[in-house]
Amino acid sequence: MSEASATQSLLNVNALLDNPVFAGGFGLASLGAALAMARRGAIAGAGMIRRRLLVNVEISKQDPAYPWVLAWLSQPRPQTSFLAKRLTRINKLSVATATSTTPNGPTRASFFLQPGYGRHIIKYKHAYISVNREKQATARSNTGEPHETVELTTLYAHRHIFEDVFTEARQIALQANEGKTVVYSVRNFDWTPLGEPKRKRPLTSVVLDEGIKEGIVGDVKDFLQRQKWYIDRGIPYRRGYLLHGPPGSGKTSFIQALAGELDYSVAMVNLSEIGVTDDKLAFLLTKLPERTILLLEDVDSAFVNRKARGSDGYSGPTVTFSGLLNALDGLSAGEERIAFLTTNHIELLDPALIRPGRVDMMIRIGEATRHQAGRMWDNFYGDVDQDGSGKARFLNKLDSLGLFGSSEDGAPPPRTSTAAIQGLFLFNKDNMEGSIDMAEALIPQKIEG
Ligand SMILES: Nc1ncnc2c1ncn2[C@@H]1O[C@H](COP(=O)(O)OP(=O)(O)OP(=O)(O)O)[C@@H](O)[C@H]1O
Ligand SMILES: [Mg+2]
């Protein structure tokens, strides 16, 4: 179930409660069954009375709402009445740890206290809710992880409280990610956040050549406003972008900054990674989190793969060309999808990829230009080099080294990458003269061997 439909169904809890044949959807199956049975009078006696009096909602770990509900449960809830104080203390807690590696520092960890396994009682507004967090004995067939559920039970008369619970839980989840970009990567058969959500990267910190950034950002924003246009014309509502160019030119950084700008998450798959197969990719795309940019890195590996299969009949456990096309064409039409593909080897790609709906826009993100080097200088030394004389000397030196492509003898000029310029500036933090002196370091070194 997609996150969007989950939200919708929880807002429709009332409607569900009144519908005896309701099944599935937001883990309410047991509730629907209980109500239906009760109505048919199939069960008599105490069991029926219990079912009539109580309402329970089961949320499984696979549901996007599961972490929200746990976060909601860990909120401090000061109780005033004597009874509530005695009844509603959660004594058993468990720790959830999230770790992240910062680019130039050690791993950071943060801890969240969650209700532990077992039964707890909480009071929310006027209602008491019994919470049962359980690990089931059965495991998920594809990952081997045990099933886990949280079950909330309350009086039938208080059933409307669930609507508020889920609305609040979702709000908490949204707040926690405010100003952050969540990057999902593939773990087993699931999208798992890669470390903690990162602070949004400002678009201005990614310096592309003149007009490129504005062109892509404008196109994506235009696309996002045109859902109706696409639907009216029966065109699948998706758009694909291919960013190609040498390593360290800012492709990945740009996509992350773009996601931040749009308030989207990024779901990243590296196609060169062993173990990402066609089936797995197709499966993952059916459960892409809401409001995400799909990022397929190193798409050229799908083509290398096709060649390998031609020669020895074995494709290896990675994505094949047809697997990639299926992923882009998508079997489940109708949903919004923004896909970014990246590659360092445009020459390996097949023209079949460049078809509207698969890849609508192809952009080369190249070696550093004079414009980019200047803008990056401003980002790093703008405050110490106010008259711009340092910048002029730096750019002229790069020019004389031939780094902006002005070689006279016809040989391909030694170009440099924006990543290398960033590296030079990082090495010479607060020391612009150092960067000018060391500019030769930007000349790419041939790796002998
Ligand atoms: N155009 C740029 N503007 C700002 N920073 C950049 C730029 N290009 C590279 N960098 C910096 O260099 C590092 C590597 O960049 P990034 O990973 O985005 O490159 P890439 O193009 O995705 O490379 P690859 O093709 O190897 O995946 C990052 O720390 C990034 O901040
Ligand atoms: Mg990259």
Describe the protein in words.
37% of the residues lie in helices and 22% in strands. The protein has 449 residues and is α/β, with parallel strands linked by helices. It folds into three domains: 3-176, no CATH class; 198-364, 3-Layer(aba) Sandwich (Rossmann fold); 370-442. The strands form four sheets. A seven-stranded mixed β-sheet has the order 9-8-12-13-14-11-15, with helices on one face. A four-stranded antiparallel β-sheet has the order 1-6-5-4, sandwiched between helices. The protein has a two-stranded antiparallel ribbon with strand order 2-3. Strand 8 (183-187) and strand 9 form a beta hairpin. The longest helix is centred in the middle third of the chain and has 16 residues, at 161-176. The protein is elongated and about 90 Å long. Mean pLDDT is 80; it is low at 1-14, 16-27 and 101-105.
